[in-house]
Design brief:
Elements (H helix, E strand, L loop, with lengths): L5 H28 L9 E15 L2 E21 L2 E17 L5 E17 L3 E16 L4 E17 L2 E15 L4 E17 L3 E14 L4 E18 L4 E17 L5 E4 L4 E6 L14 E2 L31 E20 L9 E8 L14 E7 L5 E22 L9 E10 L3 E20 L2 E13 L7 E12 L4 E14 L2 E15 L5 E12 L6 E15 L2 E14 L4 E17 L2 E12 L11 E13 L2 E12 L2 E12 L7 E12 L4 E15 L2 E14 L2 E3 L2 E10 L1
Antiparallel strand pairs: 1-2, 1-37, 2-3, 3-4, 4-5, 5-6, 6-7, 7-8, 8-9, 9-10, 10-11, 11-20, 12-19, 13-14, 13-15, 15-18, 15-19, 16-18, 17-18, 20-21, 21-22, 22-23, 23-24, 24-25, 25-26, 26-27, 27-28, 28-29, 29-30, 30-31, 31-32, 32-33, 33-34, 34-35, 35-36, 35-37
């Protein structure tokens, strides 16, 4: 293989990249020459950081090493009372190595980023223009190299005139990638507009428009997405405030055009619902587990804005590492033929091989029973010439599913914060150029009325219509709740009747009705009790079952800092088609409190018994014991512990975490910290024990040094490893 060195790259790309350097140098020179000497002081930052970490992957040792250097300068210039000019320049060098476990590699990156922006503001208007260049040279083990060049331009404006707000932004990006085997050139254009009218009495009216175009010039392919979104929300009282009403109306038109030179196109699928949950048993969503959280920004066609979903080491750990077992879920409302997906994250990963992904799919109307991970799905981490990065999922064969989710597991530490920005899922198209329009209309309403001071009734509705060019894919959704509540004295009796339907071209994917009754004591009491019954009659596609759940819950504030919560329940599920029935009992006991100001305790025990395990989710043997203890032994010495034992079906496992930390000199310029930790997990057959020290030294107000060392003993799948992990950081600002 021919080695492509830096000079070869520069010669091959001189005509494309010269505008980056020339423009930045010329603009910086003009700005500096025009300045009086007294305002030429630059702001800047110099930072050097490095780390060496070891571990075990599949029973084999591995070591990762990073060394990063950042050199940054900037200048803010007030050209006029309301006009501000900002210039900046960043130079970054990164050296990344990994060895062992079949992951031997070495990469060096050199990045240069000049930037320039101009902003103007008045009392009601802010506007500006900006641009930046980007050049990154990468040199890989084995002599191969790659160069990325990118130019960004943008215009923006924000206006606030009382009840009316307008926010608009235009941006264009041109990117070039040069490699030995293939060149690429991309052009991205986007325009976004938001106009809102807000009035406390009349309500809020908002219009949003976005137009994005992703074009691969050399491959003659492009994807263009255009969205119009109009929404209204308002609320009002009537009949002397005995009545309450609120309404939300929303209509969205989404258009996409896809062109592929190779004759096979793909279309972006618009989910009915998007969200995520933390679950280390992704095969089944158990009713005893927390509900998924809706994250609409996971599918908003914005590949740059963060969704708040953190895959990094700073995120809470589900099993072993922070950021593991994030279940990213799409619900399309009805089965769609899925051929692939792309998951975008907000930064480049130094060691993407330390994160693996699995895909799960189901047509279960509740999205609970997934079964095992899909076979024939590959996930490849890529850094795109446009400056985006993430994983591309390819399905060997299309998968027809209503729900699709992607779940990560981590084999080691990957970085403190790695945030998901977008998840795109695709279906196949048969022609090289496709156009499609998706329209979604939604009405959410609420109506309540107090018949008497202690008796009220309510009605809630959520009606949606999702239309496609192919009318056979249209989705109609209806969700209605009729409710009443009576409060005689210190008790409350409430009832609800619910209807949930989702249909497509005569096919019903969700068709369920529910009745619920609940009797509860006054929530202000020291001791509280709640008795409830819920019946669900499910006639969805492929189902014909009735489920009854009875639950009794009581809580008692034993002391001001000690609460005991006891819950017990009985459930039965009747399958009319198979003429079978399953039943289950469960109990949950929680003790939460702080017997001393320095001690926090949280204990929880759950048991579930079943007569027949064919009932699906919620009808399998399960018990779990979990205890969390945090104790400040001394003002500067803290111990925390977690122990969890779980039995699910015929399998059992336990997890144990302990840590002890000591900070002897807090609040000064020199802050040392010492710690010990212990982690054991029988499911992954791993034991980790170790300890270390961190030192932070604030030498001056602008000079900071941090460093640490950790000794770690690891045993996984019978393989032992004793790495010494090191990290350091030096930061100087001026």
């Amino acid at each position: 293989m021919v080695k492509l060195d830096h000079s070869t790259l520069h010669a091959g790309y001189r005509h494309r990249v010269r505008p980056i350097v020339a423009s930045a140098a010329l603009l910086s020179l003009i700005g500096l020459i025009a300045l009086p000497l007294e305002v030429m002081a630059l702001d800047g930052r110099v930072e050097v950081r490095g780390a060496r970490r070891g571990g075990v992957i599949s029973g084999l040792d591995f070591t990762t090493t990073t060394l990063n250097e950042d050199y940054q300068v900037g200048q803010r210039i007030g050209l006029a009372p309301r006009l501000l000019l900002q210039m900046g320049y960043l130079a970054r060098r990164e050296n990344i190595k990994s060895s062992g476990a079949g992951l031997d590699s070495e990469t060096e990156r050199v990045s240069l980023v000049p930037s320039l922006s101009l902003a103007y503001h008045t009392g009601w208007l802010r506007c500006g223009a900006g641009g930046d260049g980007f050049r990154k040279d990468e040199f890989f083990q084995g002599g191969t190299s790659r160069r990325d060049d990118r130019l960004n331009y943008s215009l923006w404006a924000r206006g606030d005139a009382g009840k009316v707000n307008v926010d608009t932004r235009w941006q264009e990006t041109r990117a070039w990638r040069h490699e030995i085997l293939e060149d690429s050139e991309l052009q991205d254009r986007s325009f976004n507009l938001t106009a809102a009218y807000r009035d406390a009495r009349a309500g809020n009216l908002t219009y949003q428009f976005s137009d994005t175009d992703h074009e691969n010039v050399l491959q003659e392919s492009s994807n263009r997405f255009r969205t119009h979104d109009l929404s209204y929300s308002g609320s009002a009282g009537f009949a002397g405030d005995r009545g309450r009403s609120s309404i939300q109306l929303r209509t969205t038109h989404f258009q996409q055009r896809n062109i592929y030179r190779e004759g096979t196109s793909r279309q972006l699928l618009v989910p009915l619902w998007a969200g995520y949950m933390l679950d280390d048993t992704p095969e089944t969503w158990d009713p005893l587990e927390d509900d998924p959280q809706q994250v609409a920004s996971l599918a908003d066609n914005d590949r740059l804005g963060s969704t708040g979903i953190n895959l990094g080491d700073d995120a809470p750990a589900v099993r072993e590492f922070g950021g593991d077992f994030r279940n990213l879920i799409f619900d399309f409302g009805e089965a769609e033929p899925i051929i692939g997906a792309t998951l975008y994250v907000d930064r480049i990963l130094d060691f993407p091989e330390l994160m693996t992904w699995a895909a799960y799919a189901t047509n279960d109307p509740e999205g609970r029973e997934y079964g095992g991970a899909l076979g024939g799905v590959t996930a490849v981490y890529r850094e795109f010439p446009s400056g985006e990065q993430g994983w591309e999922f390819t399905f060997a064969e299309p998968v027809s599913a209503r729900f699709i989710k992607f779940v990560d597991t981590k084999l080691g530490q990957t970085g403190p914060g790695i945030f998901v920005t977008e998840l795109e899922v695709y279906r196949a198209a048969t022609t090289s150029e496709t156009r499609q329009t998706t329209r979604r209309h939604r009405l959410i309403g609420e109506l309540g009325y107090d018949l008497r001071t202690n008796l009220d009734v309510s009605y809630n509705t959520d009606i949606s219509l999702q239309e496609f060019d192919d009318s056979a894919r249209d989705l109609n959704g209806q969700y209605h709740i009729f409710g009443a509540r009576w409060r005689p004295g210190t008790w409350s009796l409430s009832g609800r009747y619910m209807i949930n339907k989702l249909t497509r071209d005569g096919r019903t994917s969700t068709d369920a009705t529910s009745e619920q009754l609940s009797l509860a004591s006054d929530q202000t009491r020291k001791g509280r009790m709640r008795l409830s019954w819920l019946r669900t009659d499910d006639r969805s596609a492929g189902r014909n079952q009735t489920t009854d759940n009875y639950t009794l819950q009581g809580s008692w504030d034993v002391f001001p800092d000690l609460e005991i919560v006891q819950q017990m329940g009985y459930g039965s599920r009747d399958f009319q088609l198979e003429d079978t029935e399953s039943s289950t009992w469960f109990t949950t006991t929680s003790v939460r409190g702080s017997p001393r100001p320095s001690v926090q305790v949280d204990l929880r025990r759950t048991d579930r018994w079943v007569t027949d395990q064919t009932g699906g989710s919620g009808f399998t043997e399960f018990n779990q014991t979990e205890g969390i203890l945090s104790w400040a032994l001394l003002p500067l010495l803290r111990w925390s512990s977690l122990a969890r034992y779980q039995q699910r079906g015929g399998d059992s496992d336990w997890v144990l975490r302990n840590s002890l930390s000591w900070s002897p000199l807090p609040g000064g310029r020199l802050v040392p910290q010492f710690y010990l930790n212990d982690y054991q997990d029988t499911a992954t057959e791993i034991i980790q024990r170790g300890g270390g020290a961190n030192l932070t030294w604030r030498a001056t107000g602008s000079l900071l040094f941090e460093g640490g060392a950790e000794w770690q003993y690891t045993r996984q799948l019978g393989q032992r490893s004793t790495p010494v992990n090191l990290h350091f950081r030096g930061n100087w600002t001026f």
